[in-house]
Design brief:
With 148 residues, this protein is of the alpha+beta class. Helices cover 49% and strands 14% of the residues. The chain has seven helices and four strands. Helix 5 packs across helix 7 and helix 6 packs across helix 7. The protein starts with a strand and ends with a helix.
């Protein structure tokens, strides 16, 4: 077990913090007598959205009045907890970057198809926001290639 994390009970009417334990399950520590006893003592199930987990180094974010329990995590579990606790804005931005990459991978072929269909280069620039020089380069490439 490499890293410690903290299970805690999110107080009522408190903004969500950390990750729900259920979102990062299964965790080896969830099967320990210490965690079972802690959950039982507080009358909650591990699947409750109130049972939260934060990675090592983030314990200062736990509300002062929250019940907490340090738990060991292996490397893979620590990564899952860290990722689940990452701000949604970072996760969303990474998803947008991947979507952008997927969308833009075939942009040259799309421009070639648009030129073949007879859409003028200035209109392609207007619709796509691409640099006119890029469209000009593709136009020259298209007229120089006999296969086109």
């Amino acid at each position: 077990m490499a890293d410690d994390a903290y299970l805690f009970l999110l107080p009522d009417r408190h903004p969500l913090l950390g990750a729900a334990m259920a979102a990062v399950s299964p965790l080896d520590c969830a099967e320990t007598p210490a965690v079972h006893g802690w959950l039982s003592a507080h009358g909650v199930q591990a699947s409750s959205d109130q049972v939260r987990i934060l990675p090592a180094g983030a314990e200062m974010l736990i509300p002062e009045d929250a019940e907490r329990l340090p738990v060991p995590l292996n490397e893979e579990e620590a990564v899952r907890v860290q990722q689940e606790c990452a701000p949604a804005s970072i996760t969303d931005m990474e998803r947008q970057l991947l979507d952008f990459r997927d969308t833009t991978q075939g942009w040259e072929a799309l421009i070639h198809r648009a030129l073949k269909a007879g859409i003028p280069a200035p209109r392609i620039v207007q619709l796509t926001g691409l640099d006119p020089q890029e469209i000009g380069w593709l136009t020259r490439t298209r007229t120089e290639s006999p296969a086109q």
